Protein 1
Amino acid sequence: MKENSPIETKGKRATIYARFSTDLQNERSIEDQLSLCRTYAEREGLTVIRTYEDRARSGGSIMGREGLLRMLDHAREESFDVVVVEALDRLSRDMEDLAGIHKRLSFLGIEIRAVHEGVVNTVLVGLRGLVGQLYREDNAHKVRRGLAGRVKQGLAGGGLTYGYAAVAGRSGERVILEAEAQVIRRIFQEYVSGRTPREIAHDLNKERVSAPRGRAWNASTINGNRERAAGILQNELYVGRLVWNKVRMVKDPDTGKRLSRPNARSDWQVAEVPHLAIIDSELFRAAQQRKQERSCTHPSHQRRPRRMLSGLLRCGSCGSGMATNGRDKSGRVRIRCSAATESGMCPDAKTFYLDTVESAVLSGLKTELRAPKVIAEYVRTYLEERKRLTATSNAKRQRLEQQLGQINREIERLVDAIAKGHGDPSVLGPRSTALDAERKRIIQALQNEPTIPKEVALHPAVLNRYEEQLNRLEDALGKSVATGDAEAAEAIRDLVDTVTVFRDPARSGGVAVEIAGRLNALLGEAAYPNRVTGVWGKVVAGEGLEPPTPGL
């Protein structure tokens, strides 16, 4: 966005906005628009005080258009009176966005003037918004038709695929890169021979083989997504079959970001390109057969007991998630950093024992929850919340009681009128019945309203009872979690948001954990006053823990 220095001349204060759509268009387009708008402003007696511009920005959304957003911010400051544009589609080619811009500027008393159309009104906004959006959508259809025609000719309809390079000066043509093609053949051969994508990815990273888009090799890079037929093992281009239109791009109306959505297989377009085959069809079919066999999980393995810390564990070395990684000879479950498992890129690839980490979390929670500061703070917060709820409940109860009094009085008047013969009973009777039904509803609502709670006093006996319950809670939860009790695991997960696991160099086989949970948000700095971090068979005090503070 470019903003010029203010110019002191007479007339209404005006600002100019200019935009062109893509980096394929002429950069002079902005200068031409500004020149045209300045000429118009001079002819109309307007004083141009600023100009705003967006280069290579689509008119399909206002998101990411810094020049337009800056102009709208200045409009709220009432720093100008008129916006001059070459045409309304420079502001937006989306009906909703263009109408919104016009609505907001009109509310601020700011005119929009188009060089070829003059002062913009609601009718013109509606017409131009419709025409602009239809033009944009028609262009999208034309582009897709053009791409479909290219694919039929065996030309690429999208970006580069790993293993290929573009042919200079010949749009859509591809040639095989032999160095990358050797990596493709190796992946397929090793996979068919029985190796897993994780193992293959680890070896490629160790050998510093360049990955697609310059990132590290991951199991997902090789495996891909089955629904989208993505990933190296599922890419049919490697057997000389170009498949296009697997996905479609849609724009999120709230963020302006483009998102991919999978298309039905019946919408896919296929073209034979045997000159681009890197592997033979037999090897490709063998890989698909093995993928199919590996995707069929025995029903007995499909449902596993939910673990206490599933999805909550984080690696202290790299911040990635952690997952189970087999058992030792005694049956104890190991956990390991997912980045170490998937790509081998974590600096700490060793495993931890899950029961040791779970014990640390249970003991740590018990140690922290028994602290008098925590209990006192909890009770204080609890009382404040109860008072707030009580005030809300009292206000609601008062409203219901007022409504009930009004209805009772109206029913009494109706009954008196019927008794004295003042009015038609056929009219007053049904009205009285309806009011009686409404009265019963309000009475029921009053009965359902909770009674005013009594305040909780922090007595020493309460602390003793609280500690006894914590001891029982730890034992009960420890046994329940060990047997896969999902309800017990959920109780712990209500207190814990994340558990970061570190290796403790001061103790052989020791680990340290950082627990971030709901206490942080509830109690702030009072949370975890004992700063428990270490575990070596049992939790011990450590130093230096600064617990994060996630949302409640």
Protein 2
Amino acid sequence: MAGPGAPAARWKSHIVRQLRQRDRAQKALFLELVPAYNRLLEKAELLARFSDKLQPEPNDVTPTPHQGPGDEESPSNADQVPSPDILRVKWQEEKEGLRLVCGEMAYQVVEKTAALGALETELEERQSRLAALEARAAQLREERARQAGQVDARRARNAAQRAAYEALRRQAGRREAALRALEEEARDLLERLVQRKARAAAERNLRNERRERAKQALVSQELKKAAKRTVSISENPDTSGNGTREKAEVTLPLPAEPEFLESEAGEKRPFSFKKRRGHSIGGVFEQQYQGLPVCVAARLPTWAQDVLDAHLSEVNAVCFSSNGSLLATGGADHLIHLWNVVGGRLKANQTLGGAGSSITSVDFDPSGSQLLAATYSQAAQLWKVGEAQSKETLTGHTDKVTAAKFKLTRHQAVTGSRDRTVKEWDLCRACCSRTINVLSYCNDVVCGDHVIISGHNDQKIRFWDSRGPRCTQVIPVQGRVTSLSLSHDQLHLLSCSRDNTLKVIDLRFSNIRQVFRADGFKCGSDWTKAVFSPDQSFALAGSWDGALYIWDVDTGKLESSLRGPHCAAVNAVAWCCSGDQVVSVDQARKVVLWH
């Protein structure tokens, strides 16, 4: 940059340039007037000299008669000097002409002077404007210098930030590479863990099979020994007095295969000896849950008692505990919320995390002490009520787990998945005890005493005996099965399918007893859940438009339809075991308590 004296030198040179320009402009206005005025002065001086020469001496003046206008000069006087009168007249004429010219010149001088004054005024105005513009230009130059300094500072700051950004980008790249390596390692560890669990489960299953075979062999040996043993039966007391009794020998035949006994509920159990006395052999005892509360009469809901935006995303599942004191909701925000129903309002109890993906179904065990959830992370999570951390993770599926339900026997559960398998789980050891391969996606499962029922994407409902390896029955329906609900007495099954119908299946005769339809009812998704009322008198389901539909199971007629808080498709409904309250959840994050 130039020194501090440079702006002053430029300003002075600019003033000099402006003065020279003004001189040139003013001089141009008088370039024609000055020569004319000089010529006029020269002529006036010339005429003055002529007049002085022509002025006659007093003694030399000889009057001569004037010639008339019609007189003509004689040829002899043609070469003579004109007379003074003639010259005086001419001089007077020229003088008048010069006076007129001088007047005109003076008028022009006045006009030019006035024009010059106006130009000088305009020049002064322009000079003042020029001074203001110069001052403004100086301010702008100072502002430009300041802005240039700011630009340089910002460029320096941008360069520093760019360097910091590059350093952060390189660091992020390194961390991303480390994260990918850790993810690969975690994936490898997870695969190895799954493989180890699978091997451990296979080993346990093999040991169980060997133990069962050993038990069966032991039972066979005992049966053979029992068949060969002679049993003494006293027919009549001895009346002869010799103290002896008659004895009859009875030989028990050995059965070729284990027999089955049929109970009153229609279930078949393997034949076994009960432990009475001595060393008789008993079968494996399965721990059953205690009897669940039975609802005598359910009340139809009529109005929305409480409405909450419970989750951050759509809510997929809802379930009451067996005693109705606790409510669980699961959503696509990877969270499960537990609620208490207090005074007709939902009061938050606890939030369970750690699912890692969207929740597709939730279920309480019959005792209400454990909660099982199916997730999109190819696993099912098990929580103990009252604890925030997951108790067990049931891994083994290769696709989304769509359903997870407890069995009626303790420490056992069943899951269904989109990987076309249904798995039975031993919750004590957190291992898969049985895998059932199916030809279609499984959307929902329910469990009876000794039966597993699964609903599938190929429009079929399949029945599996938990004691046998094969499917015992298949019932086709006219649409993809979205949900299953088993009645409390295990005699009726409610199915919901994508043909927008609900069907009640009588399990005693394996036929469809009722088909429920309604104008406006439509399944909103492949996981729309429908349920029986606790007294098995009504069927409840939610529609795509946010309405709830209730049908009478006996007559098949639509009892009522509820509309109100829901503005999106209802995904699931739950009916409290007391029969007084209903909860519905939808795709717009709402949880509604109906009374």
Protein 3
Amino acid sequence: MIFQGEAIQVERRSDDIAHMVLDLKGESVNKFNQQTLKDLDAALKAIQKEEGLRGLVASSAKDTFVVGADITEFVTLFKAEEEVLIDGLVKTNAIFSALEDLPFPTAVAINGLALGGGFEFCLSCDFRVMSEKAKVGLPEVKLGIFPGFGGTVRLSRLIGADNAIEWICTGSEKRPDAALKDGAVNAVVAHDKVLSAAIDLVNRAAEGEVDYKQRRSIKTSALELNNIESMMSFETAKGYVASQAGPNYPSPVLAVKTIQKHAGMTRDDAIKVEVKNFASVARGPVAQNLVNLFLNDQALKKTAKQWDDKAREIRKAAVLGAGIMGGGIAYQSASKGTPVYMKDINDEGLKAGLDEAAKLLRKQVDRKKIDIEKMANVLNDIRPVLSYGDFANVDIAVEAVVENPKVKHAVLKEVEAALPDHAVIASNTSTISINSLAKAVKDPSRFCGMHFFNPVHRMPLVEVIRGEKSSDEAIATVVSYARKLGKSPIVVNDCPGFYVNRVLFPYFAGFAMLVRDGVDFQKVDKVMEKFGWPMGPAYLLDVVGIDTGVHAQSVMAEGFPDRMQQDFHSAMHLMYEKERYGQKNSKGFYRYELDKKGKPKKLVDEEAIELVNSVSAAPQEMDADDIINRMMIPMCIEVARCLEEDIVASPADADMGLIYGLGFPPFRGGILKYMDDVGMAEIVARADKQADLGNLYKVTDRMREMAKNGDTYYPQA
């Protein structure tokens, strides 16, 4: 044994090849935390002292290779002084360079995921042999940073600047064929052959059959680009990347600038450029917020997984109602491996549901995500039925009929009678009280809410709504089913609108009052989109459906009359009266025409502008900050209320619910993180300035207490 540590061990093989095995104790995956880096440094020093070695092969004892750096350590690291951060990166890079500079050939056997720092380790080796089941990539931009362990340097020299920019700036995971085509790996082999192939490659290099020094030289030299090629490549890339990333995500553009700056340098000088630029972006608010989101997402997954022990096994599901929503749920269930009955009251409804599933599958086939055989198998797992005849073997039934309490009551009574005693019943409703719907079933303990967001196949969030009598087993089973569907579930308690819609409608109410007071709705849209929302409030109402918005607003007004009851005729209600329902009938606040891809294109509509003006005060100019405060303060207060009333269990649930359910700007870290960054004292002050607008702008006693004490929702460094 050459070296034995907590994360790495190295043994000498009989052919004088050193075999480095990465196996971080106490963890299900390998990652580059401080312990692993310490072990790697010590292991390389031990290898350097070992006489007579002919080469080195690195492999993993786990199903993954290395998933990246330890994100939990980033929170503290990114808040350190710049000199401290740079010093740590310099030391880490020295370790990776020591691996690259070993006096014999090196190869890595990539058996599974090799991402971020894990792939940067692979790039430091002379040869990369990849399993047919593995994936590689540099996804750091998703955390608001870019590779900092030499990735921008080695990858750009290995596969060319253009390819490296695409890899780094999209952060995508690459399958074996793509990695091999670009030249990021040297070979792709059968999964059970990956280690032996890497060993064979090192032996051939040691014997002189393969020139490893020439390959190493490419990575440690300057990029082979003349001035004209460099200018064309990088200037074009910067413009394109900036247009794709947008102004709120600086790391992709800085990654391009970093590669451009060190293109003419040799490795060690180039790494200094990478380290300095990495430190500048890592210490910025976007990186810190995106890292916080990553940790929140991990917390969300951990919380959901904790329900597993109480959940019943789901072998067959049923969906009641075969419209767009029902068809979407059926598609999601079947495509993720759970066969499903799809019931409706007529053949036309069933055809609509099947057409929706088939449409989604065809798109998958067109994009080469699945083949025709997979499409056929999924469709075969969706069984359309007009009766409850086969429901005796169903484990969970999701009611997704129209948003009408009487219809839902009738359907829930019918399905309960047809289901076995162990089956769980869930209602996909966006507004109707779960406690109210529970009155329709004889055993309310097995009933709860399961609120999907439209479109089902894209939106990651599912709200699992606990009624007063919902059992832990029912909640656990629905959470488990949501996870099987590939969704991120949060458990919320019952109230009008549950969590996401409850906090959305104060935001819409802020918009309604702005328009009432004479602020141009198109300007509001532009300001809120610049704030980071994927679409402004008027556009969002058109997408949701004006009729849906009016219905939900009436539910909110009934549930929270002190602050959500409107005493004026809003533009949304006028649109509804004029049967302008938004995208569903091509006219709302805007008008819509299909583009070449068949997607609705938003266009200015003079008729809509005239209608809005008819229920608005004289036009007034308002600066962007005031518009943002008028829009965001009601939502902030309602989120705080939901947390205080235990509608949501934690700040992580609250923030991820809005990001996954509404598209709250991720670079802001979530709405509670946004409040922390602004400061509760400032939030309260902004709300108090709007006191004349009513109770929507009245903060809670707890918020005032937090402002007084300087408290935050998340721990501060």
Protein 4
Amino acid sequence: MVLLVIHREKGPVITDDVFTPGPGRTVFSLRPPKSDVDRFREEGVWRDGNPVQDLVRWRDETPDAVALIALQTETGETTSLTYRDYARCVERYAGALAELGVGPGQVVALQLPNVWQVPPLLLACFRLGAVVAPVMPTIRSRELERVLHRVGATVCVTADVWDGYDHAGALAEMAPRLPKLRHRVVLGSRIGAGEVDFTRHFEQPRETRPLDDAWPDPDQVCVVLFTSGTSGRPKAALHTFNTEYATAAAHVTPDDRGPAERFFTPHSLTHTGGIFLCLMRPLLTGGSGVVADRWVPEAIGPFLEATAVTQVLIAPVFLAELMPFARPGSLRLVTTLGTATPAPLVEAVARDLGLPLRTCWGMTESGGTLMRADDPPDWALHSAGRVSRGSELDLRSDLGEITAERPGRLYIRGATVCLATVGRDTGELVVPADHDHGWYDTGDLAIPDGRGGIRLMGRDADRIGGVLMIPASDVESALLAHPAVRDVALVGYPDPAGGELPAAVVVAAGSPPTLADLREHLAALGMTEWYWPTRLELVDQLPRNAMGKIRKDVLARDLTRRSTVD
């Protein structure tokens, strides 16, 4: 079945260098073709502006309106910036980055927790025409080094120590293997040899870069976001200001109330959800982003009430933890991300907050769907919403009619899809519009919801996770290096909160390993902790098809059945 399919011309083209790993070659010269630029502007889903201009607008029109509120959960202290403060901070940070040699097309990596400095840093990079590579603070040294190598980051801004992990130390250890990395900037009190002290350099730079005298091109690559992708192999998604704008603008409604609108998400400011809600949405409405540095539900519940938060975007597992501490207050919209939404959660939001719980679906590579005000109150149980303006969905199946028992594979194309993906480890460049008439394979399975939208029914067996995907093939390769593992498949099994957790299905080589053995092995490699399996299943052999490929669908069904029985 096809939903709203429109044929259009071929998508983005490379106008300068064709990407090949090696010196002097880049993907950051990618641009959309003029036909797409003209079409999407005419439809109103792309624009000539950019977030820096949005900031200047509110600085001039509502300089005393609150732009950003940040909570330090350990001390209870808050930091608040008006739009005047915000703009001055961005100018100061842009000057500090320029002093470090940052300019157009260069890459700045940010690996920071949800502190107030992150949004101004993002905008400062945009002001200079630099490309930002945000990295979540839960990513560990093994994956971080690969990211920094792939994007050729010249500056990396990180924390000294956060949640017991020595970020600055890990970055210092890998720095000699990253010849393009010129500066290691550290936010915190522990500043080591060769590191730039963030507080001294960024809060008191020798120069500033005014916001009024340079406007970044809205169709240039501005941010590179890493994801495991549909194949379970890590990749970077290259977005422009306009692909990001199309996603954020789709959620703006006439009900948004300007300076009174306050947006909160617990998700990382250095990944797509945080950028979408706490940077883009406030700048489009003149409202404010509200952030907390750590996920502490008992502290965040009162904080949301005290700061009069109006909109929350949150994964079901986080919402379930927040509900005992949440109060209606000023809340008018609570939206979960498009993993399965448990019925008790829908009921709790309606009962305790007096609101219908909404849901939306999207991915790092593209915006997607959202529920609307005219949807039934319990529609989050049945739908991930309708496609956003400027985008199209396609459901495909080789098995005939698409049903709940035989869902279709979900494809998307349009104004929200990234210009390209780049394999983190392989360097493989894929321009979505150059393949299959621009359709991007999401790896998700879905059916029509009966109201012009979709209901998500699961994922391709290689995709594991909830809000964030786990790179299955990468973890499998690492596990195969364990002497007690002869063969292995990483497969998702149901998380009670509506997502998925990773299970290692192992054929042992001699004495079988324990789950603790496997996790210790991955820890020793420096692998990011939330990639590690949380369950171990020992089997005599892995099921394979005629081509020798592991039948992960069979393993996943078996794990789901066992989880249900358990």
